[in-house]
Design brief:
The structure holds 2 protein chains of 2 kinds.
Chain A (H helix, E strand, L loop, with lengths): L7 H28 L4 H10 L17 H14 L1 H20 L2 H7 L10 E4 L15 E5 L2 E12 L6 E7 L9 E7 L5 E5 L11 E12 L3 E2 L5 H37 L1 E2 L2 E2 L4 H29 L5 H26 L10 H9 L8 H13 L1
Parallel strand pairs in A: 1-4
Antiparallel strand pairs in A: 2-3, 3-7, 4-5, 5-8, 6-7, 9-10
Helix pairs in contact in A: 1-3, 3-4, 3-6, 3-7, 4-6, 6-7, 6-8, 7-8, 8-9, 8-10
Chain B lengths: L1 E6 L1 E3 L6 E3 L2 E3 L5 E3 L1 H15 L5 E8 L4 H10 L3 E6 L6 H15 L3 E5 L10 H9 L3 E11 L2 E7 L4 E7 L2 E5 L11 H7 L4 E4 L32 H15 L4
Helix pairs in contact in B: 2-5, 3-4
Classes of the chains: A alpha+beta, B alpha/beta.
């Protein structure tokens, strides 16, 4: 038995997200990209129609959408603007550790308030000298009575400075490497926490990225997820899932590259005919279509594995690496289809390439994805 | 009061439609709720939001695939739905007879119908339904108020607009300008899953036979003549003026 049909409900999620992308995201995407500004109004409206924090469980009043639901929505929003979608995606990334490791009390305490407004969560793993080597993190967690004291610096944290809470990964015993780590929920108003917005990103400029400095930030021990020593495991299990929306967003960018290229190729004339008549252009469109179909199916397959509780780490890594590489290649070819116009920010395709470059890097670089895949191959 | 909103499922306006020997080919086409019908659902919701005590019933007559459009209406805010499921293609008069039977059985006070159907453009279903029911009807409605058990409406005529008062029960056909339909929100899409969607068959409703038979369908194409006027600028301009005056008769 194998099924490729979306449910009526999923088709409606898709239609809603598509309309939202078209009417609410696309009209302001270029502006926020140029200005490197936060699309507050888009996030507010996303909350209003229910597109924000969709993975919050029904038990605490959320929608509890599945990973496949999220992937379907991600493609549409990524089509509109990958940078703006990253704000929503990074919030789901901040929620995921709580879905995996929080007690019902913690879920109610941290997740229910997210539903009250256009509120965000964040996930803080990377550090200035440590990204993919997550076992070597330096942010310290010191247990002090019934409190945990956090000190150190996290960087590249999407939503970091504007999130209601951030799940922070820290070490209480560096010698134990990843076995000495903890995952701790830090609310944004804890004294000692300061956030600096980072400027100068190549793409996804609507998504605010922060450096977070923890200067002896104290949180109750009840903010720790799981047990002492679970930090690394929670982070990895989180990323094994959240790489799927990264892939799905890239699929959206890929589809946008194809749509924009197709429309332009049919309209633009050279040597007395639309350039879509030339095989040189047709092959580019065909290659984009091949990549689109294969990337989407791999992404949905990974989502289906995750939803049905099967091992999905390898499938998610394949989806993430393949979809983002393919989307970057497609965006680049879209610029070639547009020629000189493609190089200008008056047209949408150069932004696609700048934006989707990040999908190859965040939530584990594509090199790390290949390490994960190779480990499974050699197992 | 009970409001019935009649809806159809039609090809997405952006779908590429082809006509073949058997009529319009719908393979691989994305279907959506008819935009004209969304105005009716939205207007019914607005009446509720304005404080009227209403039950909103979405009603559709068509094949199984219509269920998707019905779910959209439920997600927008209809309370429940009735789907008369059939693969028989009926013309608007035959459809009106079936729909009227459901409207009578439901005891509805007000029926909204999309101004014209985005698939076949007949603009006949609303008036036909009013005719079968023997109810007052407002077509091309752009404004609607419910006051003291009667409707005050404005609607388009060929030359302008007209204001009418209609006693209930009544049929109102909707169009652009009446309102701006909302999105079905994600939570409402999920709630729609638990709403009642009752299936009815044509037989239960007295059966139906199409009164007209479609012999052939073709897509309208406009050919451009693409005439190029030869000669130098002055004589070409003179020729252009002559063509615009004598042939196109626009000068």
């Amino acid at each position: 038995m194998i099924g490729f049909e979306l449910s009526d409900e999923q088709k409606q999620f898709q239609a809603l997200a598509r309309t939202f992308a078209k009417e609410t995201i696309i009209p302001v995407a270029a502006h926020h990209d140029r200005e490197e500004s936060y699309p507050e109004e888009v996030v507010r409206q996303a909350h209003e129609v229910g597109l924000l924090n969709v993975s919050v469980p029904e038990a605490v009043g959320g929608l509890g959408l599945s990973m496949l639901d999220e992937a379907i929505i991600a493609e549409e929003l990524g089509y509109g603007c990958m940078g703006i979608y990253t704000i929503l995606m990074a919030s789901e990334l901040g929620i995921m550790p709580l879905l995996l490791a929080a007690t019902p009390e913690q879920q109610a305490r941290f997740l229910a308030p997210l539903l009250e407004g256009p509120k965000l969560a964040a996930f803080a793993l990377s550090e200035p000298n440590n990204g993919s080597d997550a076992g070597g993190l330096r942010t310290r967690a010191v247990f002090d009575g019934d409190e945990i004291v956090i000190s150190g610096t996290k960087t590249w944290i999407s939503n970091g400075g504007i999130a209601d809470f951030t799940v922070v990964f820290a070490t209480y015993e560096p010698e134990l490497k990843h076995r000495g780590t903890v995952a701790v929920v830090v609310e944004h108003d804890r004294p000692g926490l300061s956030c600096n917005k980072l400027h100068g990103k190549l793409g996804q400029r609507a998504s605010p990225t922060y450096e977070m400095v923890f200067d002896d930030v104290r949180v109750p021990i009840g903010n720790m997820l799981g047990e002492k020593g679970d930090g690394f495991k929670i982070a990895m299990r989180t990323l094994d899932k959240t790489r799927i929306p990264v892939a799905a967003g890239a699929v959206g960018v890929l589809r946008r590259a194809l749509d924009e290229s197709r429309a332009y190729a049919l309209e633009r004339e050279a040597f007395g005919q639309p350039i879509a008549r030339f095989q040189a252009i047709q092959f580019k469109l065909a290659d984009m279509k091949i990549a689109l179909e294969t990337a989407r199916w791999q992404t949905w397959h990974a989502a289906w594995l995750a939803d049905s509780g099967r091992p999905h780490a390898e499938a998610a890594a394949i989806a993430k690496a393949y979809a983002s590489d393919a989307a970057f290649a497609a965006a680049q070819e879209a610029i070639n289809v547009f020629g000189g116009y493609g190089y200008m920010n008056e047209y949408p395709v150069e932004k696609l390439m700048r934006d989707v470059k990040l999908n190859q890097i965040y939530e584990g670089t594509n090199e790390i994805q290949r390490v994960v895949i190779a480990r499974h191959v050699l197992q | 009061m009970k409001i019935i909103t009649v809806l159809k499922q039609v090809p997405d306006a952006e779908a590429r439609i082809r006509a073949g020997s058997g009529g319009v080919e719908l393979d691989g086409v994305t279907f959506v709720i008819d935009g004209m019908d969304e105005y009716g659902v939205e207007e019914a919701i607005r009446l509720r939001e304005a404080g009227h005590d209403v039950e909103i019933v979405a009603l559709a007559l068509g094949p199984a695939r219509y269920e998707e459009a019905i779910r959209t209406a439920l997600a927008l805010g209809a309370d429940r739905a009735v789907h008369v499921e059939t693969d028989v293609e009926l013309d608007p008069i035959a459809q009106a007879r079936v729909l009227a039977e459901v409207v009578r059985q439901e005891g509805a006070d007000l029926v909204f119908v999309g101004g014209k159907q985005a698939d076949w453009d007949s603009a006949a279903l609303g008036p036909a339904l009013a005719e079968v029911l023997g109810w007052p009807h407002s077509d091309w409605t752009t404004e609607l108020k419910l006051a003291g058990g009667a409707l005050e409406v404005r609607h388009d005529t060929d030359d302008g607009q007209e204001s009418l008062t209609l006693p209930l029960p009544a049929v109102v056909t909707t169009q652009q300008g009446l309102n701006e339909p909302r999105y079905p929100t994600l939570p409402n899409i999920m709630k729609a899953k638990r709403k009642e969607l009752a299936k009815r068959s044509l037989d239960e409703l007295g059966g139906a036979q199409p009164l007209t038979r479609v012999v052939a369908q073709e897509i309208q194409t406009r050919e451009r003549r693409g005439r190029i006027i030869e000669g130098d600028a002055a004589s070409a301009a003179a020729e252009l003026v002559r063509l615009l005056r004598d042939e196109a008769k626009v000068l």
